[in-house]
Amino acid sequence: MNLQPLKGFRDFYPEQMSFRNWLFKQMSQTAKLFGYQQYEGPTLEPVDLYVAKSDEELVDKQTFILKDKNDKSLAMRPELTPTLARMVANKQNGLVFPLRWFAIGPRWRYEQPQKGRFREFWQWDVDLIGEESLQADAEVIALGCNLLKKIGLSPKEVTVKINNRRFLQEKLTEIKISPDKVKSIFKVIDRKDKLEAKDWEKYLQEVVGDEKQEKEIIALLENKKFGDFPELVELFNLLKELGVEEYVEFDPLIVRGLDYYTGTVFEARDKDGEFRTIFGGGRYDNLLSLFGGQKITGVGFAAGDAILEEVLKKFDKLPKLKNNNEVLVTIFSSEFLEKSLKTAELLRNNKINTAIYPNKDAKLEKQLKYADKKDLRFVVIVGPDEVKNETIIIKDLSTGSQRTISLKEIDNFFLS
Amino acid sequence: MNLQPLKGFRDFYPEQMSFRNWLFKQMSQTAKLFGYQQYEGPTLEPVDLYVAKSDEELVDKQTFILKDKNDKSLAMRPELTPTLARMVANKQNGLVFPLRWFAIGPRWRYEQPQKGRFREFWQWDVDLIGEESLQADAEVIALGCNLLKKIGLSPKEVTVKINNRRFLQEKLTEIKISPDKVKSIFKVIDRKDKLEAKDWEKYLQEVVGDEKQEKEIIALLENKKFGDFPELVELFNLLKELGVEEYVEFDPLIVRGLDYYTGTVFEARDKDGEFRTIFGGGRYDNLLSLFGGQKITGVGFAAGDAILEEVLKKFDKLPKLKNNNEVLVTIFSSEFLEKSLKTAELLRNNKINTAIYPNKDAKLEKQLKYADKKDLRFVVIVGPDEVKNETIIIKDLSTGSQRTISLKEIDNFFLS
Q1: For range B102-114, the mean pLDDT
Q2: Distance to chain B for A291, nearest Cα, Å
Q3: B345 and B308 within one domain
Q4: What gap in Å lies between CA A347 and CA A335, rounded to an integer?
Q5: Nearest to residue B347, comparing CAs of A42, A34, A104, A31?
Q6: CB contact under 8 A, A326 and B32
Q7: Is residue B98 reached through a cis peptide bond, with omega within 30 degrees of 0 on the bond before it?
């Protein structure tokens, strides 16, 4: 029998799991710091939910699909936004807007696995719903920047590139691009850093079909200034006031792949552009009306766990996590089992994570060797003298030193 | 478009999510208190993995199955133990035994939804692997009891029923049941509280086919004493030393459905027997050898989130969780936006969860009403006087009182 996980899926042994828990905690704390509340949806939804709004490629080619017993097609969610929209539409009248919500959970995409890309991955979704001000856009971007800062990534290493679809649209109108071509040109722009230069120019030609306009589009994409376009002027002012000025820059190339974005769009990238988007999102003004409710605007982003791990690795910022932080209580010999069990209970009552060696007949030497192999720091020994004096020996394996302390001092010892 | 989640699946709005997060935290803290480390496996595995060891009914009828692009059958995991066995077998030589591992994650079973039973649910798995002592069995049971205690369920409300398959086997041998019938009789015993009395007796007759033996089996199941059977004597002594005596009782009816249990078996139930198993498990001595590795013994259990919620509800022990614990910084008027943004930043730098009203043009009255509807306790106001004096007003919505404090005192105020 094959002992490996499926292709594109991961086993998380305790070491990998403690990194994952650490990362999720940073995400959760950052979101809460800005007043966001956690929610979660089902992992399976009817395929129809995604057909209504997601990218076609995502649904047709990259989604794990199964049939229920009534032959209805269900999808293992490739993203969370459609579920969010459904949930908000479902309780529209009972919710107090604006909503500040975040989620951390698994998504599945049937893609070719590569560095930083798995078929099963975790995503952090952050959304502010029911408020159309640029202040909302700025807050969500600042929240993302705060995560980058919190996990140790500096503006020298990562940057959040920002654009506005209405700005692009205005520029395209100025060079007489007809409105029905705008959506296709957005797709072309989105592919710029995914295609070879030559292939991309060919793609641009196919879509635009006018040499002068093509040159004007290229010039537009090379111009790193947004002039006096009011939304971008205000947004960058707000980002400055929110203290994240160093993390953000204007980039006319950012447009995002999904159709539903209407204004501000943004992507966090490593400065060298080695990896895919660290987090990406934007404003969606019409998404919720797909569900027949009233118009509710929103702005949000999603960040994947695997890219974040790769970026931290690249900049040598992976946290040094101690995986085994409990105390091991040894068993001096079988007749001392009860004393060791009681000592373990006392330690636990003092909120100290405590394992006891699980076999009373194991030699003390074997138990100490086990603690050493497990990379534990503290070992407790309860022998005949200790029982008599109501003390325990605490051995610090990191220094080799040991101390005898009274049972009454236990909590003080481990706190210090 | 249907706005409800799929049948048997749940939407977790922030209110439901905060209960779930609370429950998972109790599980995680309890496991860590005993020195257990968290792990996680993939949610999809080849169907073969379950065929190798799971209950037939579980795989054939209750598993969500899909096909990959090579027409291979994949299962959305109905349980985690097969994955655990695969993961341990895969790294057998790199792991330091005994392992103390726990996991909290989603499982899927295509069952008829009812109270406390969903098609998508979360399970807490706790396992001690690589140690065959009864001390290990006792520890795992005590850990489960510690969760019950931690979440407020007393021995008057819940109990852990314990048995031993070798004990049952010995008793069946004493009444001359042939060894090849033992497994079928275990199944009969496991169905005792799931069938009507008459149907169960008929089932027993079919399997045993001897009136005298049937009576002896019924007598055996009614005898709530285990006599001097050494494993049970030692186990109950250990449970006493571990301080969980009041939570445990012997019950010859406990046998567990899965084939792979070999010794100790146990189930936590509400005292009235209203609900299915709160947590259930036992010792499995041969599970890992299915993967062709050396023999590794283990003991463990799993607990579902939905039953725990129902049991807490029944005994009125659901925690009172405050869902909105952040401060709202209001915007006095649009020209004060910058001051409010800076105040919010200052609060966040002091680790106070802080939302700011996301629209500078909203009237103060509207903002206060929003805070009230959101059930927030503290609102911060920064008006012209406050800017001049470098102070802020903190309004306590729970009492209606307000205080003006200096910006330098912010951290002290919220900590007190």
Answers
A1: 96
A2: 6
A3: no
A4: 20
A5: A34
A6: yes
A7: yes
Q: What is the pLDDT at residue B194?
A: 87
- pLDDT score recorded for residue A259: 78
pLDDT tens, B367-399? 999 999 999 999 999 999 999 999 999 999 989
Quick one: tokens of B193?
């509280």
Token pair of B46, please?
Answer: 């080849």
Q: Which domain holds residue A349?
A: 327-415
Question: Could you tell me the CATH number of the domain that includes residue A165?
Answer: 3.30.930.10
Same domain, A88 and A33: yes
Closest C-alpha to A27, from A103, A80, A79: A103
**ipTM of this complex prediction, to 2 decimal places:** 0.95
The packing angle between helices A230-241 and A134-150, to 10°, is 40
Count of the separate structural domains present in chain A: 2
CB contact A238 to B (< 8 Å): yes
Please tell me whether residue A298 adopts helix, strand or coil conformation: strand
**Residue A61 near residue A95 (C-beta atoms within 8 A):** no
pLDDT digits (tens, 9 = 90+) for B15-28: 999 999 999 999 99
**Rounded Cα distance, A103 and B168, in Å:** 48
Tell me whether strands A354-356 and B37-38 are parallel, antiparallel or unpaired.
Answer: unpaired
In a domain? residue B1: no
DSSP code, position A228:
T
Asked whether the beta carbons of residue B39 and residue A17 sit closer than 8 angstroms, the reply is yes
Residue A289: DSSP 8-state: G
Say whether A120 and B43 touch across the interface (CB within 8 A). yes
DSSP-derived 3-state class of residue A136 = helix
Tell whether A42 and A166 lie within a shared domain.
Answer: yes
**Contact in structure between B344 and B354 (CB atoms under 8 Å):** yes
Closest residue on chain A to B51 (Cα): A1
Residue with tokens 């994240």: A244
Q: Does A334 reach chain B within 8 Å, measured CB to CB?
A: no
CA angle, residues B392, B394, B400, in degrees to nearest 5:
145
Phi first, then psi: what are they for A396, rounded to 5°? -95, 105
- What is the torsional sign of CA A55, A57, A62, A68? positive
Confidence of residue B156 (pLDDT cuts 50, 70, 90): very high
Task: Indicate whether B308 and B331 sit together in one domain.
Answer: no
SS3 for B117? strand
Within 8 A by CB and 6+ apart from A327, the residues are A347, A352, A353, A354, A355, A376, A378, A379, A380, A414, B35
Is A168 in the same domain as A248?
yes
pTM for the complete prediction? 0.95
Which parts of chain A sit beneath pLDDT 50?
416
Instruction: Please list, in sequence order, all residues whose beta carbon lies within 8 angstroms of the beta carbon of residue A147, skipping any fewer than 6 positions away.
Output: A26, A27, A30, A124, A279, A303
In a domain, A148, yes or no: yes
Shortest distance, CA A213 to any CA of chain B (angstroms): 39
Phi, psi (degrees; rounded to nearest 5) at A338: -60, -45
Cβ separation B33–A354 shorter than 8 A: yes
Q: Can you tell me the distance from the alpha carbon of A154 to that of B20, in angstroms, rounded to the nearest whole number? A: 34
A183 falls within a domain: yes
Question: Is B358's CB within 8 Å of A135's CB?
Answer: yes
Same domain, A257 and A172: yes
- Cα(A203)–Cα(A267) distance, integer angstroms: 23
